[in-house]
Amino acid sequence: MIKKFIRKILGVKDQRDPTEPVVLGAAEHGIDPKLLSSNAIRVTSTLQDAGFKAFVVGGAVRDLLLGVKPKDFDIATNATPEEVKKLFRRAFIIGRRFQIVHVMFGQDLLEVTTFRGAGEANAPKDEHGRVLRDNSFGPQHEDAMRRDFTINAMYYNPATQEVLDYHGGIADIRDKTLRIIGQPEARYREDPVRMLRVVRFAAKLQFTIEPTTRAPIAVMAPLIDNVPAARVFDEMLKLLMSGHALACLQQLRKEGLHHGLLPLLDVVLEQPIGMKFVTLALESTDNRVKAGKGVSPGFLFASLLWHQVVEKWTAYKAAGESPIPALHLAADDVLDSQTEQLALQRRIASDMRDIWSMQPRFERRNGKTPYKLLEHPRFRAGYDFLLLRCESGEIEMELGDWWTAFYEGDPNEREQLVATANAAPSGAKRKRAPRRAPRKTGAGAANESTTSEE
Ligand code: ATP
Ligand code: MG
């Protein structure tokens, strides 16, 4: 006890037996029980009443320790998926890479996982060492060992308010350190997505990546190419929609990880011309996420890849194509090259195409044309995109201002605007009017998902 206390005071890294957790009481960890969801408590107590072990685990414990309300709660238990399913009215066994149980209460979904065994070493792997399937169950300490980072490998029991820490996660939370559990090279080989998770968590939490966790990434990054594209896309989307996308990309650059981690990031980060535009787009996305508003992946990817489209668009125009067909050709080229690598879902790709192809139409301000564009189901997204182009200096602010006035104007004002646009010499540079707060209308879904609530 005294030895442990002295080690703690001196900050000496614990060389404990990793099968025995350090147990911290409420006074030591300081978790505010009010941050827990009642459904998380319902699941753990139902399992415990049936004689099983049950804990809140992973990201939720990390967030609780940081004093942040977790956005979702994962539960770990020694009950098998079948045993879990029997205890809840609405529970479904989902068999993806790992079998887990989805327990539903109304709209609320909790993921319940059975403790995994240390079977990763013997699990079936691809030729690069990536684990393909692994459903072996095991004791809790093996489950802790299988998790990615020390700060993600803690267990909280709401009934006793105790935190079980197997890998020094508490100390790392306090030091703001992101440390992988086990031997970094081996862990990245087994699952290369962990390299993307390092970056995401470091940026999101503003933690420092511990040197041995960081070192192999630059060399091992190409292993990400062997991961199924849909899984990389999911992780990429989490990164971009974390509310810290800009910080994530800056972190990648700072760590020298922007080469080869993902082809999309190379495109985005390597070309300074588009940087202003991408920065503004990510800033606006981050602000929306932080304000609890939805974000549309289509808008986001349309922004990230826009300067590539512009480059090809210019080339097609220079080769004699007229602007609109040239833009379609450019969009096809960019989408073709990214769809394969990124597993862009068809719906997202079609949103991107809509946003891009609307852009030259904003330049036509005569007759009925602007009225028709206003009716476009994705007008709001296209218009927001136009404003980003103006703000980044790619095109004159005058065009964005005109559309803002047209969009917000009454029928008389609109008529006048069309008349003046036709009369005014094109390309006249005016001073930028302050951007008004976006109006809520049914005109389209702007930079927001269909499920979002404003
Ligand atoms: P977020 O706040 O983004 O949800 P999270 O840590 O909860 O962060 P999840 O993807 O929800 O992340 O995963 C839940 C937990 O499962 C993690 O905290 C970690 O313990 C474990 N985990 C997830 N992905 C991996 C992985 N690739 N390798 C090892 N453990 C993982
Ligand atoms: Mg989570």
Automatic annotation (TrEMBL):
HAMAP family: PolyA_pol (MF_00957). Its EC number is 2.7.7.19. Residues 428-439 have a biased composition (Basic residues). Adds poly(A) tail to the 3' end of many RNAs, which usually targets these RNAs for decay. Plays a significant role in the global control of gene expression, through influencing the rate of transcript degradation, and in the general RNA quality control. It comes from the Bacteria. The lineage of its organism: Bacteria, Pseudomonadati, Pseudomonadota, Betaproteobacteria, Burkholderiales. This is Poly(A) polymerase I. Gene3D superfamilies: Beta Polymerase, domain 2, cca-adding enzyme, domain 2. It comes from Massilia soli. Residues 207-266 form the tRNA nucleotidyltransferase/poly(A) polymerase RNA and SrmB- binding domain. Keywords: ATP-binding, mRNA processing, Nucleotide-binding, Nucleotidyltransferase, RNA-binding, Transcription, Transferase.
